[in-house]
Amino acid sequence: MTHEMLVFGDSSHSPRKCPSTMILAHSMARAVVLVVEDEFLLRMRAVDMVEDAGYTAVEAVDADEAVAILESRSDIALLFTDIQMPGTMDGLELAQTVHSRWSPVKIILVSGRLKLTGIDLPLGSRFFGKPLQAEVMIAQMRSMIGHS
Known about the structure:
two-stranded antiparallel sheet; 5-stranded parallel sheet; disordered N terminus; single chain; alpha/beta; Rossmann fold
């Protein structure tokens, strides 16, 4: 999308057209967060947190679907994943895969059953126990990928 400005010169008071800067579509786009959760209600709650933070949510029900999404898109800024879920890999394995294949993608892991230490997590990722506090999760997402 381009815009034209009308510029008034010093010597003539008639306007002339001047090209303006092109506005890039991606500069106005909201950051995209991939939410991976097999339980529908918990996934919807996570999506609400992502959207309340000002980001766009993309949903996956398991790690296999998440990998397919990551392979088909280049705009995922953050992976928000449960750890325990069905499929060929759990959320921790998904996080390790994402860290090695898509290193710029930030990672948040959550679980209601497991407690992880920093040694278990991919470098730079964060872990939170369920139940999740929306304010804490929104603040964490914003600190990891910025304000939308």
